[in-house]
Design a protein that fits this description.
This protein is an alpha/beta fold and 147 residues long. It has one domain (2-144): 3-Layer(aba) Sandwich (Rossmann fold), CATH 3.40.50. It has four helices and seven strands. Strands 1-7-6-2-5-4-3 form a seven-stranded mixed beta sheet. β3 (65-68) and β4 form a beta hairpin. α1 crosses α2 (40-50). It binds adenosine-5'-triphosphate and magnesium ion (MG). Adenosine-5'-triphosphate (ATP) binds at residues 7-10, 12-13, 34, 36-42, 59, 61, 105, 129, 131.
Length: 147
């Protein structure tokens, strides 16, 4: 199932992410795709706030990822620099998936190793501060809960 939502501000994108986060449980993976500056990290920040993360949520572009204390913990991976993920690199990533909800920016590089996502998010620029947010999930109830 797929739903398309419109956002007109970063705060609105955070709010949509927060609504999704309320339905997620430890072990869930969410793929977050979209062009540079489309709002992927902003989306993850909104989800983190809903899950009780109080520390700053920043882009992990220059590290492999962040893990935040929350209820449950939230991991935020950014595979921007990867063209693929080798088994050795997967060994470094695996701890982020233990007892956490995991958001993955630029998930395409991890398609061979990442667990199947519970939901996929695609953010698209729509002029100025407007964004189109496409949410895809096999579980229709997950998306019905946030629309
Ligand atoms: N409707 C909106 N939704 C999300 N972000 C928005 C919106 N309108 C404006 N912005 C701004 O766009 C920028 C998005 O930056 P963000 O780091 O979230 O994007 P990103 O997709 O993670 O970028 P990158 O590809 O570099 O990782 C922020 O400065 C945010 O405030
Ligand atoms: Mg980002």
């Amino acid at each position: 199932m797929r739903v398309a939502l419109a956002s007109s501000s970063a705060a609105e994108t955070e709010g949509i992410a927060a609504r999704l986060a309320g339905w997620l449980v430890s072990g869930d993976v969410v793929a977050v795709s979209g062009e540079l500056g489309s709002g992927k990290t902003t989306f993850v920040r909104g989800a983190c706030r809903e899950l009780g993360v109080s520390s700053p949520v920043t882009s992990p572009t220059f590290t492999i990822g962040h893990r935040y204390r929350g209820l449950p913990d939230v991991s935020h991976l950014d595979l921007y620099r990867f063209s693929g993920v080798s088994p050795a690199e997967w060994g470094d990533l695996e701890p982020y998936f233990e007892n956490a909800i995991v958001f993955v920016e630029w998930p395409e590089a991890g398609r061979d190793v990442l667990p199947p996502p519970r939901a996929s998010v695609l953010l698209q620029h729509a002029g100025g501060d407007s964004r189109r947010i496409l949410l895809t999930a096999d579980d229709a109830a997950l998306l019905e809960g946030i629309t």
